[in-house]
Each structure stands twice: as C-alpha cells, then as structure tokens.
Design brief:
With 252 residues, the chain is of the alpha/beta class. It is built from eleven helices and twelve strands.
Length: 252
C-alpha cells in the first residue's frame, strides 16, 4: 500500500490549524523519499514561494521535481557561504559546497546523505542547526567551521543513526537541546543508544518525536521554551479529577 503520506496526514492539517496557507521557503535537505515524500501533497495544497535544495537529484525523485515544474515553483540551489537575511533572523548555509561534490562517488542512492543541506538559523534569542541526514564524511568537514557550528539546538543528523553524530561533531556543536525526528517502531531501530549517549554525556537535553510527539520551540526575550505534544496529550479519564486535568490542557 506504500508509505503513509505525511504531507496529507500530518503537515498540511497542522499548518491549516495555524491558519497558514502560504509557505515562503520550502527546504529539501536531500532527495530521498523519506524527506520529500510528504512535500508533494504540500505543493498541491499551499502556495510556495521558493524551494531551497542542494542541487542534486536522483531518478527516484522524479515525481517530486516534476511537481515543482508543474507548479512553477522557483528552485534555489544553496551552498556553503550563502547567507539569507530577514528582519529578525538569518539563515547560514554551512553545507554542502561545490568541491565536496567534485570527483565524488556519492551518486549512489544511499550515499547522498552527506550531501544534505546543513542550515543554521540564528536570531538574537536562539540558534538552531538543521542537519538533514549527514554522516561521518560531512561531519568531519563541518567540525572545522568552529564557532559557526555552535548552536543552542540541533536537529540530530540521520534520525539518530549510529553512523552520524560523532563525538567530535557533538562537541563542536555543543547544543543545549537535541531533537531526534524519528518514527515510532521504525525498521532501522533509530535512534541508536550510542548516539543518544553521546548527546546526553555532553549535557544536552534530548527530545524524540517517537516518544514526545511534535516538538515546538518558541524563542522570546533572550531565551527559548520547548513544548511537546506529550505535554498536551489527554490522559485516560478514570474520575472527574482526570477530566478536570484534560480541561486545563485545553484552556492552556
């Protein structure tokens, strides 16, 4: 029956619930189906300003790129050194870059993880590092960026897989908070226990979407707050006191 359409089932309903009908910038880290699959439905149902990606495609992603052409959405290829500035924040592109592609054997489907876009979103209150599915090769390259890599929050590379998040990389980023985007009971058993330990040993607080549900970060006045779906999930009702707790969740 194929994979569930996360665009239809999760992303679009959430955006509609927030009154969002237009997406200024849609970012594709790399052209693997677990990253672009839900975006086809999103492109059909939202007005998209631009699509940012790393400039590489694979035959298996043909449907995605045909949809971009059909919807006449501008494609913007990002590379290291690009800086996109807005009024209250800026986006730093840390990876990839032309020389990283040159002479590479990463044409194979499974080897394109390290070609993922790595973006750092920075404001006065907060810095967040988005890492796609990068693995050892990209991480070894990135650690030399030193202060540019330092971030308050990291979206953990490759769903917390064992082949990412080396000790050197975790130390270089130095996050206070680490978020693993991963499906519950997934076939790859992500995240790996060794990966989790590297972050917790560094002092980072861990959040996992398979355990906590959606993770929402709100930044204001020099600090940030993290809320999860788990914080607002209703508890099983066994008494009027439990019902009152659920009512308070709705109010807040």
């Amino acid at each position: 029956t194929g994979s569930p359409d996360m665009g239809r089932m999760v992303i679009a309903p959430y955006l509609w619930s927030k009154g969002i009908k237009h997406i200024d910038y849609l970012v594709l880290s790399h052209a693997h189906p677990d990253h672009y699959g839900g975006l086809i439905y999103v492109m059909d149902n939202f007005k998209i300003g631009e699509i940012w990606f790393n400039g590489r495609s694979i035959p298996e992603a043909g449907e995605f790129f045909r949809k971009i052409k059909e919807r006449e959405i501008p494609k913007i290829v990002l590379k290291r050194g690009d800086v996109l500035e807005a009024e209250e924040y800026k986006v730093l592109v840390l990876h990839p870059y032309d020389e990283f592609f040159a002479g590479s054997s990463r044409g194979e489907f499974s080897d394109q993880n390290s070609d993922s876009l790595v973006l750092k979103i920075e404001s006065d209150d907060l810095s967040v590092l988005f890492t796609g599915d990068i693995e050892k090769e990209a991480e070894e390259n990135l650690v030399h960026l030193s202060k540019w890599l330092k971030s308050d929050i990291i979206k953990v590379p490759h769903h917390g897989g064992r082949t990412s998040s080396s000790s050197a990389f975790v130390k270089a980023v130095g996050p206070e908070t680490a978020v693993v985007s991963v499906g519950k009971n997934n076939l790859f058993n992500h995240p790996h226990a060794e990966t989790i330990k590297r972050y917790t040993d560094s002092g980072a607080k861990m959040y996992r979407t398979d355990a906590h549900g959606a993770v929402i970060v709100t930044a204001e006045n020099g600090s940030y707050e993290i809320r999860t779906y788990e914080d607002h999930a209703f508890s099983k009702v066994n008494s009027w006191k439990d019902e009152l707790k659920n009512l308070m969740l709705l109010i807040h």
